[in-house]
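--- STAGE predict ---
source: upstream dedup step, 1 unique chain passed
mode: sequence only
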Amino acid sequence: MAYDAFADSYLNPGQVGGMPSYLTQTAVDGTVLPLYLTDGVETREDGTSKTTRRGLVSYVKAMTGEELAPLAAWERFQALPALVRQQFLRQVLLLELRDAGRDQNFPGENGLPRNGGYNRGYAAIEALFPGDGWRGDIAANNLMLRTMAGGDISVLTPGGGLQLAALGATVPPGHGLVTLASGHINVFARDDVIVNRSRLLSFVPAATREGSDQIVWSTLGDIDAGRGAKTVRVPSSADIVTDEDGNTEMRERSDMSGSGIGTVGDGDVDLVAPVGTVNAGDAGIRVAGNLNVAALYVLNAENIQVKGKVTGLPAVAAVNVGALTAASAAASQAAAAAQEVLQQERKAARNSLPSVFTVRVLGFGSEPAPATDRQEGAMGDGPATSARGSDPASYIQIVGAGRHFDAGQLARLTPAERHQLMQER
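--- STAGE serialize ---
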């Protein structure tokens, strides 16, 4: 790793003339200084301020207790042990990766991303990890890294990817990358960053504004928040507070819940995959602060919950309620018209059906009986007026329709019928 060359490119005041404008700042006295010599503070919408960049002055003070001016801090920094210097330089790299992702989502000159966008991150990677000979993955079956008192967790794999848990592995509560009390989580990988059923969670108490941020960068791969349950709880120890009078009380902390990627308190999250996909998965992404996503694709955006501002996510089209109402009314009218047409067709079909009549024959013949005869069964002694007989000229002959029969009619009767007729007379 080229730490010395990286320090010259990003921190050395003597090299400020060759630095791009986004790496410089102008002091109150008009002096142009490297950006990372001083802190960066951002004012939020609620009026509070948050430190978004810890500069070299603050870092030297934390390491040595000395409060120095920017140029003096640079001189003092060069005398610190190599491991102490390298820690700060890695922080500068990660902040450059974060800002590259943010710049990618904002237009600059000629319609190009601000400050070069992703190219800003590529330049930082090349400065600290020159060449392409880097190899190695971090692939754990069940990884657990946790800080309890404000420490950061930084994972750098310039030649590989990061897997927090094996596919299908049961992950106990608290496993994964977890920070408590203002610790940041930073991941830089060339390939995929895979959470599976594990978690990448940061917690910050409400009393502090230091933040508990996350930066995840994958140069060539994807960032996958995993498929764990959202209800898994990460237990955290209670705060034990003693006042000046010696009164001690135990205050329960808000437990962090869920797998996936998330922050509790005031933490921001930056997810950058220049040629890959950011996938919220089933576990989801939950951000207490602001979220920036810079990627070629974003999947399962419905599983992303953000309390603050969001940049980089696909826009959700607004619903035109008026158009939906009009469409619904038109659909109702069309349905009514269709129903009326159907009823008319059914009526026409019924009218076209052939009629079926049921005929019941009650009798035959229509001639009146002879005037001298009385109608059988008629009341009174007057002449019958409705007696009827058989017409000899009709095609239909009814034997026995009248009281008088000629020889031809009698001949048609059987002996038994003639005998019965004679008895009835």
